Amino acid sequence: MRRSESCGYRVEGTPTLRGYGRLVARAITMGAFVAIVAGGIAPAHAASKTFKLSVEGKDVPVGAGLKFRAWTYDGEVPGPVLRARQGDMIHIHLTNQTTEAHGIDVQAAQIAPKHFVGDPMKPVDYTFPAEVPGVFSYHCAANPILQHIALGMYGMMIVEPKGGWADGPAQDVEIVQSEVYGLPNARHVIMSNQSKVVAAQPDFLLFNGGINKYDLDHPIQIKVGKLVRVFFLNAGPSLTAAFHVSGVIFSTIYQGGNPADAMHGLSTVEVPPSSGAIFEFRVTQPGDYQFTDSNRAHEYKGAMGIFRAVP
Ligand SMILES: [Cu+2]
User: Of 136, 160, 184, which marks where a domain is finished?
Assistant: First the structure.
């Protein structure tokens, strides 16, 4: 964390899925109110946060030696995770490096949708208060939305509840599930296949932009006895996910990631497209715990990974 040129703080490069190299959003906290507390200065909660994103066309690696010809937020699929706290004032600023119209619909926003899309080459700018906690999708709002999401224009926004999570500290894991339509060409590049997109028949399912990304050689490490909190987004665009961890019954599930919508003691929970959830669990024994989309055809196409529990 370093001081920005203004009176706020610039937060960037916070690791998500610690050790897995992904970046959390670049959030520029502008003019954050600060409070003097014993022992130093701490940021208070009601902050103003600006998320600056850029639309870029790029061939992104999706694992297995393949690339996907994508439209991206900040050159990544999924786009960066945007993190805020309930009560924050959120400012979205999107610049467009392509010649097509794009936009960004942050589903945590309760404002007129006309703000979500802009003219080609013109920035999209809007502000909203993050009033409802949860795990939200953000995605391109240009028509056809189906095509823009299928080409990679999506990401996760987490709005933490004002008072924090009821079950306290945990290991945070962020998982974005999504679909890729099309098979690789001779140069190992996947070009999105529009007829498959329209038929909702993907060739690959991804967790955090990779096919079988968290396999036996690249598991997500967790600790026996320690609470794990999975922030899950099903970016779609079209299939329903059924999130499950083998050998686990979730202690708490927040539908939409909202603590007001809690469920308990379930092994598998559906998450609709462009929707999020939070799954909390602990394991009591060391070992490998497979996490999947329990729609087995989705698992077969890449929606699977491993939590490796260590003592
Ligand atoms: Cu777009």
Answer: 160
E strands, 64-118, are 66-73, 82-85, 89-96, 105-106
Predicted TM-score (pTM) of this structure: 0.86
> For residue 18, what are its two tokens?
């610690």
The answer to whether 175 and 208 are in contact (CB under 8 A) is: yes
pLDDT digits (tens, 9 = 90+) for 99-134: 889 999 999 999 999 999 877 778 999 999 999 999
Of 263, 280, 182, 270, which Cα lies nearest the Cα of 226? 280
> Which secondary structure element, helix H or strand E, spans residue 291, and what is its range?
strand 287-293
Q: How far is the CA of 148 from the centre of ligand 1 (A)?
A: 5
Q: Tokens standing for 175?
A: 């998982």
CATH number at residue 63: 2.60.40.420
Compute the distance from residue 257 Cα to the ligand 1 centre, in Å.
25
